[in-house]
Write a structure and sequence with these properties.
Elements: H1 4-26, E1 63-67, E2 74-79, H2 83-100, H3 105-121, H4 123-134, H5 138-164, E3 167-169, E4 178-186, E5 189-193, H6 199-212, E6 216-221, H7 229-242, E7 250-254, H8 257-264, E8 271-275, H9 278-288, E9 295-298, E10 303-307, H10 313-325, E11 335-341, H11 342-358, H12 383-395, E12 399-402, E13 406-407, E14 417-418, E15 421-424, E16 441-447, H13 450-457, E17 462-463, E18 466-469, H14 473-482, E19 489-490, E20 507-508, E21 511-512, H15 517-523, E22 525-533, H16 553-568
Parallel strand pairs: 5-6, 5-8, 6-7, 8-9, 10-11, 10-18, 11-16, 15-16, 18-19
Antiparallel strand pairs: 1-2, 3-4, 4-22, 9-21, 12-15, 13-14, 17-20
Helix pairs in contact: 3-5, 3-7, 4-5, 5-6, 5-15, 6-7
Length: about 575
Amino acid sequence: MDQALPVVIAVVVGGVVLYAVLRRASTLRAIPFELKPPAESQPGWQGEELAQPGIHVAGHPELIQCFDPATGRALGQVRATTAAELEARMQRARQAQTRWAQTSFEQRRQVLRTLHAFVLAHQREICQVASRDSGKTLVDATLGEVLTTAARLQWTIQNGEAVLRDDARAPGFMMAYKRAKVVYQPRGLVAALVSWNYPFHNAVGPAVSALFAGNAVVVKASEHVAWSMPYWEQMVRRALNVCGHDPELVQFVAGFADLGRAVTTSPLVDHITFIGSPEVGRLVMRAASEHLTPVTLELGGKDCALVFADADMRQCVPVLMRAVVQNASQNCIGIERILVQQPAYDAFVAEMTRRMRAVRVGAILDDAPGSVDCGAMVLGADFDRLEALVADAVAKGARCLVGGSRYAHPRHPRGQYFSPTLLVDVTPDMDITRSETFGPIMVVMKFADEADALALAHASPYALGSSVFSADRARARRVALALRAGMTNVNDFGVNYICQALPFGGVGISGFGRFAGPEGLRALCVEKAFTEDRFPFVKTPIPPIVDYPIQDSEKGYAFTQQIVAFAYSDS
């Protein structure tokens, strides 16, 4: 026995090594490629400053005026995709998908590895393009654009096959002679209508999931970030092309509301993912109902953070600062309501006052290094609404300790900036507690106990994400699970999205359906129920007593009763 043990160990180790070698040999490696970013993305680039920055071109409804929201400088004009062009592009995508659906998971992984390698090697270029088009800082672009996309790619590469592999199911006693399974098959052509707050991630993320599930994809980009879309599209298409696949699988289109309607009403589209507002989400549902196209809706949030008095403020405060200031709070899961327990309230407000006053806004690609914490806002036209929400709260008793209005930047007078704002003593009767702000406004409310905190949290019709901060882990878990929300984090903010194994989505007017995680990947597939005979010589017989035409219905009925009693009785 003692002599045999080393032999057994050697055989096992040898087998493991051989398996690893063979697996590595069968792996299709990433193929490097280069893609030059647009010249306007370079720091210090100078362009024409628009007198009144806006996306519409007078007399030319077919054109989209692109500009840097941080400076108001023109980035050029993009011609909106027409309905006829959309139809042609979707037809080409569907044709390419018939071949793509036959590829192996390893072939699809190679495309994603190729794209992943490019993203990691070109982080700065990607961040600069995203920053120029949306006004965000490079730090915010790294965290919100590159990190999230890299996480999506890595999770899909490592786990996608296991999620979409045929799923064997128990057939039950009655069907014991059958094999039963769920087969996840591509839907065909899927569409994503995405928001402007993260132009790179919102466009490329849906393409990653769609491609791995065997689909073609059409991404309708927001007209507010149309300038960067050709760069993102070329990136994904080049990854497909260098791996030997048809780049027509991926179609990025840009246009106004009429293009969105054309996508959502098209019979060529087999699934729709929409990221936007509840109002537009209802329109998408109505349009999709024409052909009963399934939809996934992510419709924003009014996320709350519940801060109990025993929370670790040294960790909690910096996390909540990022939850409000990052990307000028243009985040679906940005924290828009901070509920603080009464004993910790005054100290929390004092610390946030100090921090919010110190936040510096500006253009990260144009201003001096180290001088910008918070970038511009994409929708300058939204400032009237934000100022009205602040004014309503102050009129009803809230205190605005910092900011509260648009900011006229001394170096960038055409830039679109809103002052980092701290609004405290906010109560549920104020409009700002029910309207998604999507701006750098920290709203602080006071609560007494758990029941009070939950009542305040649930006063909003939105229910996307949430956070609970407490040193008492049992309480934090209890409260987090009691929150009506699609997602929640204990002692943190937004990290559930970095955990790409988790689904992303909300309830209530925040939408339904999920993207990310196994649930999101499978939503892009037809879940086909499949059975076959376990043994070729055992097939389903039809007993003569119930074979049509049935000779004696009473005897046939008695026979079927006996079958039910035999197969499904508990005794």
